[in-house]
Amino acid sequence: MQRSLSIALVGNPNSGKSSLFNVLTGLNQKVGNFPGVTVDKKTGISKIDDDLSASIIDLPGTYSLYPKSADEQVTYEVLLNQENKDRPDVIVIVADASNLKRNLLFCSQIMDLKTPVVIALTMMDIAGKKGITIDTAAMERMMGVPVIPINPRKNKGIARLKKTIADIIEHSPGPLPDFVDITSITGEWLGDIRELCNLPSNYGALHVACNYTELRHLAAAHRIQIAAILGENGFNKARVQANEIMLRYKKIDSIMQQCTVTDSPMKRMVMSDRIDKILLHPLWGNVILLAVLFLLFQGIFWLARYPMDWIQQAFALFGDGISKSMPAGLVQDLIVNGLLAGISGIMVFVPQIMILFGFITILEDSGYMARISFLTDRIMRTAGLNGRSVMPLISGMACAVPAIMAARTIQNVKERLITIMVTPLMSCSARLPVYTMLIALVIPNKSIGGFMNLQGLVLMGLYLLGFFMALVVSKVMDLVIKTKSRSFFLMELPVYRAPRWKNVGITMVEKGKIFIRDVGKVIIVLSLILWMLAAFGPPKQMHAVEEKYATLIKADTAHTDSLQHEQATEKLEHSFAGHMGKAIEPAIRPLGYDWKIGIALITSFAAREVFVGTMATLYSVGDVSNGTRTLEEKMRAAKRPDGTPVYTLATGLSLLIFYVFAMQCMSTLAIVKRETRSWKYPLIQFLYMAAIAYGSAWIVYQLFS
Which domains are present in the chain? Predict the structure, then answer.
């Protein structure tokens, strides 16, 4: 019979925890949210041995069991709350061997919670380059728990780690001995709290004493009793915590002396330090950063061009085949111009989404993403932020929703609020389909200097434009919002590593699936609704159009095709969708937009990428080619009533600028409301972004008309 257990992966940030999670779970993983908070919850299934499987939970990285951010609070809640449904049977502590002393502090705290523990020692190769040799057998004896050297990137030590976990479950070892005697710095009264809350350890009781007002799982009666016990014994939280850390480091120093050998008192300079002299140089570091971004956006266009062309051609052939095999009528129109047009609007941009996330994963895996934060800290400070704001902003290139959640790691309230307010200005992956479609439509696909693609340069410019506007708005908010608090940016730079290509591949596949599943559902539903709105209209008006063209076609059979096209266009104008677009056309005409673009602006408020699906549906309904032309060809052929093209350079650039700045995302507004706990800030965000988008788009249209 197959048994199952729950395993939690915990560790310091940049310790290799995520790499181990990916090795253990592969593609069998999912992302959700912890109950009651918006912090990501990564879980997966792993086969430990033939009759044992495990549910793996990857807890947010933390440096100690004294949380300072929302992410760390989640880890704290899972490990301390006996009733938490995510509480693990076994804890795997991922410890960085090259920074062992700091990592052992967290290890010792986890051990004292009395849950079965395995220490997975990573970065052994980096420790070796620093001249550090670790006797893992001696360390295991002194720590009293299994210590397994692993290398997730090369799949080394994973089998031994699984066997060790299986042995722990099989033999059910008793409670671990105390790493330090907590009662020696508190007093025996700690046992009263332990008994009151039915806790397995004195150390767990200490954390209840320190945080009883914040732990949500404690009963009100218990809080009152705990407060009374602490008052009677003169409990001083800060003094006890400081004494605890000193006591732990005293024992850790003893372990380090007996279990590690360092070649010299000074750590040898490893390759990362040499590389950093160049990549973190005040001048050359920024030049290289721009070059990396240039290659990223050039690559998105160059690499994605071929699969995108194949997907477009496949859908065009498929649509043509359906049109020829089915009788003309409402059902054929629904399938070809409604459903198929919506699906093609999703699938054609999947290659670019996957490539973007692939590049971002490579930057993170290699250690360069942390250097970007370091390089941009000075720029951030001039705008009222600090380097810690860079990670949410960079994450905003993927999606603003998790990026805004990531701002929880910013401790300064003012800087966190400003970061939340400007993060949606970063061009997310949802904008990428809009950008690429419009760029391909109005920007020539030509090379500059023999190696630079003009379309790729424009795409890079749009991303940089959003970033610099975020800095401008940040500076304005910094001047408006007054506070006396100051913050400091401290960050540990991980060593450079070769990207783990399996991890890159897994991320690309997962993000592609998420785009198809989550965004696809919205686009398909809206496409079908749009098809109905575009196919039907007020009966009198639609009937009048049909009668008008029936008479014209009967009188002029030589021009039947052109008359049928005019009929389809006029029916679309008189449809329900046409009336919606015509209603807002006066407001958007100064930007160069027609009523069809107006409909797309309305629908894309659900999600920016819906713009593409809307265009696919609208131009399919008004088209008589039965799916043989691509969306780009249909849009390029679109004409205004006076015969001029709809998508001129001025209109295309105006639309691009509008989507760089506009808040076209309900989900982002919802998460801002949740994070700020007020509708005031989402409303301000929507209005200021709409004003910038409209004003900038108008200026661009006037300049290029």
Answer: 3-262 (3.40.50.300)
